[in-house]
Structures are given as C-alpha cells and as structure tokens.
Amino acid sequence: MEEGVSTKTNMNRQLLHTPEGVRDIYGKEYAAKLGVEEVIRRQFNLYGYQDIQTPTFEFFDVFSREIGTTPSRELYKFFDKEGNTLALRPDFTPSMARCAAKYFMEEDIPIRFCYLGNTFTNTSSLQGKLKEVTQMGAELIGDDSVEADAELIAMLIAASAIGGASIVFQSIINNTIVTPCLLGMNSLYTLTHTAVVFAAGSGSILAANANAAFATDLVLMGITATVLYSYLFRKTNHNVLYVLLVGTVLTSFFGSIQSAMIRTMDPNEYDSLLSTLVASFSNINSEIILFTVIVLAAVVFALRKELALLDVITLGREQAINLGVDYDRTIRRLLLGVTLCIAAATAMVGPISFLGLIIANLARQFLKTYRHSFLITGSSLFGMLVLVGGQLAVEHVFSYAIPVSVFITAGGGIYFLYLLLRKEK
Predict the structure, then answer these.
(1) pLDDT-based confidence at 55, cuts 50/70/90?
(2) What distance in Å separates the CA atoms of residue 287 and residue 391, rounded to the nearest whole number?
(3) 17: pLDDT confidence band, cut at 50, 70 and 90?
(4) Cystine design at 372: which of 152, 175, 310, 387 (Cβ 3.0–4.6 Å)?
(5) Alpha-carbon gap, residue 379 to 403, rounded angstroms
(6) What is the DSSP letter of 355?
(7) Percent of the chain with pLDDT strictly greater than 70
(8) What is the C-alpha separation between 367 and 337, in angstroms, rounded?
(9) Strand residue runs (E) in 219-345
(10) How many CA atoms lie within 13 A of 297 on its CB side?
C-alpha cells in the first residue's frame, strides 16, 4: 500500500514539470514577450504586410519536401483517425507557400504576409535547444524585382563606396586614422539636405521626389566638397594635424548653420526632414540604387588610371614624381573621386559616421598588405559585415527603435580612440 502511494506521489511530482525542450513563460517575462511581439507586428503592418494564421499541424507532405530548413527526421509526426500522416509545423515558410498557392494565385503580386506562432522541432536534448519556440517573420512572395533585395544591395553599395573611398583617402594623405567623415562630410550632407528643405519646402519636387532629392544632394555635396577640400589640402600641404583641426571646425560650422535653419523651420517640415537625416536601409527606392551604381561606376571608370597608381602614390611625392607620375593632377582627381563616392553613398542611405574608419583599418590590420586592390575589396567586405550585423541588431534586438548609425558611431568612436592610443605607444 505504501509502495503504491509512493509511486503515485512520484508521478504527481513528475507531472509538475514540463517535458524536456519546452518551458513555461509567465509574469514579467511573458508581458515583455507580448510587448516585443506587438512592436514587431506593428512595424510589419506599417510596411504593408498582412497578418495571417496557419494551422499548428499540417499534412506531413507539406514539410517533407524540405521546403523549409528542418530535416524530416526532426519533425513531430503523428496519425489522424483516417490514417493521414500529420506533422507539427517546424517552420512557417512551407505553410506560407501553401496559402499563397491556394488563396492568392489571382491576387496582384507581390504578396506580403507576416505571421506569429509557435514552431516545433524534435531536436536532440544534447543540443541544448528548445523544441518549441515562438517564431515571427514576414514573407514577400512573387517579387523578383530589385526592391525585394534593395536593403542588401544598398548595404553592399554603401560599404563598397565608403570603404573604397576611405582607403584611397588614407593613402592620399598617408595616414590611417583620418577618413572623410572626420572632415565634416556627414555634417555637410545634413546641412545640404536641410538647406534644400528650408529653401524649397518639404512639398517641393527637390525634397518630396526621391530621385530629385538624391540628385540635388549629390550635386550640391559634390561641388561644395570638391572646391572646399581641394583648397583645404592645397593650403595645408596635406598636413594631418591641420586637416583634422579644420575638419573639426567645419563640422561645428556646418552643424551651427543647420541648427539655425531648423530653429526657424516649420515644425511639420522638420518632422518630414528628420527621418532623412538618419542613415536607413529600409524602403530605398530602386531607381536611386541604380542611379548610385551608375555614378560610382562612372567614377571608377574615369579614375581607372589614377587608381592603378595608388601603390606608387603611397611611396611619397618625390618617389612618385621620379617614377613619372603627375602627382598633383593624380591627387586632385582622386580627391574628386573620394568626394563623389562619399556624396553618393551618403545621399542614398544617409550619414554613417566612422564606418569608413572601422572598415578601412580592419582591412589593413587583417590583410596586412599594401596592394590597394586587396585593401579596397577587403574594406568592402568588412563594411558589408558591419552593416549587416548592425541592421540585424536593429531589426531583431531593438525592433527598429535605434538606427544602425548609432551602433556604428558609438563603436567607431571607441575604435578611433583605440587607434590614437595605440599609435602613441
């Protein structure tokens, strides 16, 4: 009798626990989870994604074709009374594809879905993973245009333009801790963009039309920066200390003028302006991406001879002249190219301070070469990694509450101080 009571007591105690791989969520943790889900869902809806709910289990064949990412051996499988093999969903993608094929074949594409629910995978307990997790995501179906991949394309273009321009700029002035952003290029962009809205109004074609705004920013920044910085380098004779000092003064000067414009601007126009002054890779117009690629390709083609001389330029003025290089002309043309690359990238996605400093120095530290073809390629790859990592944090950790430029600016500032202190040692 006592043995039976003991066995029953042990069974009751065991029932108080959940099976391995699942857990209870309650209290503050559950409230926080609901809050995060609501914020993400709201963002999906803002971008035109419609909520959809699919069954927790489906026919096994829906998942057995490996449409998703889970092997069939890791599915929870069971039979219904009719003998059909069913499976708990391990992923939402196959269900989204089934729904699109069944209900939305006649709809105008692309189709945008967003979903929220639990998924189940029968993984080994040794992997330390939960077997039931909440999955939230979005599916863009039937869109093979540039817009579907605009975010990644914009990141690649920005990383290549800023990384390549930073490497070239550092080689011109023979210093690895100075990049165009330290000379006030980002402040020049915010001033230029604010001045256009201030003078023409937020409803004008120069501000409201994405293509016109991009072209205006590019032209104004290109002309202003080329004239200003060419004169600056000529007067300072490429002296790094003077360059940094003047760059600091210009940053403050541009910021002060922009601040004065904002204070006298209509509040509604300022609201429309504010979002364009922060770097963003979301909702980038594909025509702007194409325009940027054309501009950058034209710059690279026009400067192909000067770019081939970068390895010689880094030897110094006297050595380059002795080797037959028209040093002053080459420097002027390369500076123009740097200005146009930074202007194009900034006009496309907004200012990203310290990105060039981070990726250019990472390329130099890891590649340990003086060949600029390798350094420019390496800086572009590092730039892509930094931007993708920052964007993932923005989307999945902070739910778009913090722009990617904040992470890069904070990390770049710390990295800049590290480079300065390391050089002093």
Answers:
(1) very high
(2) 22
(3) confident
(4) 310
(5) 22
(6) H
(7) 83
(8) 24
(9) none
(10) 6
Nearest to 292 by CA among 357, 358, 218, 374: 218
Edge-to-edge strand ranges of the sheet holding 57-59: 57-59, 85-88, 77-79
Structure tokens at 306: 């000067």
20 Cβ contact list (under 8 Å, min separation 6): 125, 131
The rounded radius of gyration (Å) of the Cα atoms in the chain is 28
DSSP assignment of 18-63: PPTT-----HHHHHHHHHHHHHHHHHHHHTTPEE----SEEEHHHH
Structure letter (DSSP) for residue 278: S
CB neighbours of 336 closer than 8 A, spacing ≥ 6?
A: 226, 230
Take residue 214 and report the two structure tokens written for it: 């991009």
- For the CA atoms of 363, 411, 351, 288, the dihedral, rounded to the nearest 10 degrees, stands at 60
| Contact by Cβ (8 Å): 194, 273 | yes
Cα(109)–Cα(141) distance, rounded to whole angstroms? 7
What are the distances in angstroms from CA 114 to CA 92, 273, 282?
10, 29, 17
- Number of Cβ atoms within 10 Å of the Cβ of 25: 11
Q: Are strands 85-88 and 77-79 parallel, antiparallel or unpaired?
A: antiparallel
Q: How far apart are CA 248 and CA 134, in angstroms?
A: 48
pTM: 0.61
Please provide the distance, in angstroms rounded to a whole number, between the alpha carbons at the two ends of the chain.
80
Tell me the one-letter amino acid at 157.
Answer: I
Q: In which band, very low, low, confident or very high, does the pLDDT at 118 lie, cut at 50, 70 and 90?
A: very high
Q: Which residues have a Cβ under 8 Å from the Cβ of 66 and sit 6 or more positions away?
A: 72
Q: Where are the beta strands (DSSP E) in 103-213?
A: 111-120, 132-141
How far is the C-alpha of 196 from the C-alpha of 152, rounded, in Å? 28
Burial class (CB in 10 A: 0-12, 13-18, 19+), 176: middle
DSSP letter at 276 equals G
CA distance 403 to 393: 10
**Strand 85-88, strand 57-59: pairing:** antiparallel
Give bridge partners of residue 114 from the DSSP assignment: 51, 138
